[in-house]
């Protein structure tokens, strides 16, 4: 049971593996040839194809499906910064901390969209 769970976890975490780790997976578990000359994207595609794993959608595609654009996220950032400034003036430390985390999350989402 434990070994099966580890294998499933590794299959789900292919995106997070380094190139060296992907090469090890490719050599041990597939019959791929020329893996040392492949780049990470090529390795990911080859390993997924060899194992029959469906390719997950990129973060940009997932957000676009929900109708979220960078422009909307940037507007949300401006709104949150305004609320944060109001909280600072009111000296509400709890709300400042909450808004800081929300801002951080929204900024990460914009980066995922723009870099994907």
Structural write-up:
This protein folds into two domains: 50 residues; 57 residues. It has 116 residues and is an all-alpha fold. The protein is elongated. The protein contains six helices and no strands.
Features:
elongated; disordered N terminus; 6 helices; mainly alpha; 116 residues
Q: Could you list the spans in which at least 5 consecutive residues all have pLDDT below 50?
A: 1-10
- H-E string: HHHHHH
Number of helices: 6
Shape: elongated
For the record, the count of structural domains works out to 2
Radius of gyration from the alpha-carbon trace, in angstroms:
21 Å
Q: Provide the structure class.
A: mainly alpha
Instruction: Tell me the strand percentage band.
Output: under 5%
**Approximate helicity band:** over 70%
Look at the structure and give the mean pLDDT: 80
Number of strands: 0
For the biggest sheet, the summary is:
none
């Amino acid at each position: 049971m434990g070994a099966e769970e580890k294998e499933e976890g590794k299959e789900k975490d292919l995106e997070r593996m380094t190139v060296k780790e992907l090469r090890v997976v490719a050599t041990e578990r597939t019959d791929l040839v020329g893996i040392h000359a492949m780049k990470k994207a090529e390795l990911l595609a080859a390993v997924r194809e060899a194992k029959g794993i469906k390719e997950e959608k990129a973060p940009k595609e997932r957000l676009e499906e929900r109708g979220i654009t960078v422009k909307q996220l940037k507007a949300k950032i401006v709104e949150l910064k305004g609320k944060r400034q109001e909280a600072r003036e009111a000296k509400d430390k709890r709300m400042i901390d909450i808004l800081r985390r929300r801002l951080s999350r929204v900024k990460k989402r914009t980066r995922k969209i723009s870099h994907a």
